Amino acid sequence: MKIIQFSILIIFLPLLWVSCETHENISVVVIDKLTKQPIDSVLVKVSDGKKNGDEWSDNAITAHTDSNGKFEAIIKIGYAFGNNHIYLGCDKKGCVYKEELNKTKGIVDL
Q1: Residue 11, CA atoms < 13 Å, CB-side half-sphere
Q2: How far apart are CA 104 and CA 27, in angstroms?
Q3: Looking at residue 94, what DSSP letter applies?
Q4: What does the alpha-carbon distance between residue 65 and residue 24 come to, in Å, rounded to a whole number?
Q5: pTM here?
Q6: Do 58 and 51 contact (CB within 8 A), yes or no?
Q7: Domains, the chain, ranges and CATH?
């Protein structure tokens, strides 16, 4: 009986763990705060909730905005143990670095 209970635990525990993860679609447009025009080639970094100070998670995605200021990505996040935050950082030479928490859609003023 103990072997059956242990076998059931071994089978269902990984299923429970995997079910706690999801994919989040990120779709933002980075615009100039003053002119309200889209900004091309902004370095955007998106990370799950494992950011520690200035250190980003190994799961972080880094890319540049297109000519319309648009950035799109899909990031895998885990809701197990309360890890349900998304960090979004935007940086471009001559602009002030900006970081937002749980910003996944819409406009980012830089």
Answers
A1: 6
A2: 6
A3: T
A4: 18
A5: 0.76
A6: no
A7: 22-109 (2.60.40.10)
